[in-house]
């Protein structure tokens, strides 16, 4: 409990020092958009299609699920498992397959061009 209050006090001290000693000098160079040394051309904030974010979220979802599949495969293929481990593993794989079929049916992977 003492450590918690010490950490909260230290963080509060650092934030307070930052607010007191902060020198906010905004110039045109600091506020302008930087594009690898080139002058800005065209629109700065280009809207992206929402499908790109859907694909990124699906990638993250399956990437995290892969982390769960690796230990499951080691347990199932080494023979060190009980029947409940086998049943839970197959249920997990079935949920993954249903999710993949659902994403395919609702065209989440399809990027529509204008």
Explain what the structure shows:
With 114 residues, the protein is mainly α. It has a domain at 50-105. It is built from 4 helices and no strands. α3 (50-78) runs antiparallel to α4. The longest helix is centred in the middle third of the chain and has 29 residues, at 50-78.
Low-pLDDT segments: none
* Topology, number of strands: 0
> In this structure, how is the largest beta sheet organized?
none
Strand content: under 5%
Helix content: 55-70%
Query: Count of DSSP helices?
Result: 4
Question: Structural class, judged by helices and strands?
Answer: mainly alpha
Distance between the termini: 58 Å
Offer a few descriptive terms.
114 residues; 4 helices; 67% helix; mainly alpha
Task: Describe the protein's topology.
Layout: H1 2-21, H2 28-31, H3 50-78, H4 83-105
Helix pairs in contact: 3-4
Brief sketch in words of this structure:
With 114 residues, the protein is an all-alpha fold. It is built from four helices and no strands.
């Amino acid at each position: 409990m003492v450590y918690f209050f010490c950490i909260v006090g230290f963080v509060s001290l650092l934030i307070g020092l930052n607010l007191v000693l902060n020198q906010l000098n905004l110039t045109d160079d600091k506020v302008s958009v930087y594009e690898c040394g080139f002058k800005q051309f065209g629109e700065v904030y280009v809207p992206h299609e929402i499908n790109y974010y859907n694909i990124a979220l699906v990638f993250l979802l399956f990437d995290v699920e892969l982390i769960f599949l690796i230990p499951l495969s080691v347990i199932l293929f080494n023979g060190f498992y009980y029947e409940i481990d086998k049943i839970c593993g197959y249920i997990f794989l079935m949920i993954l397959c249903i999710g993949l079929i659902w994403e395919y049916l609702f065209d989440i992977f399809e990027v529509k061009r204008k």
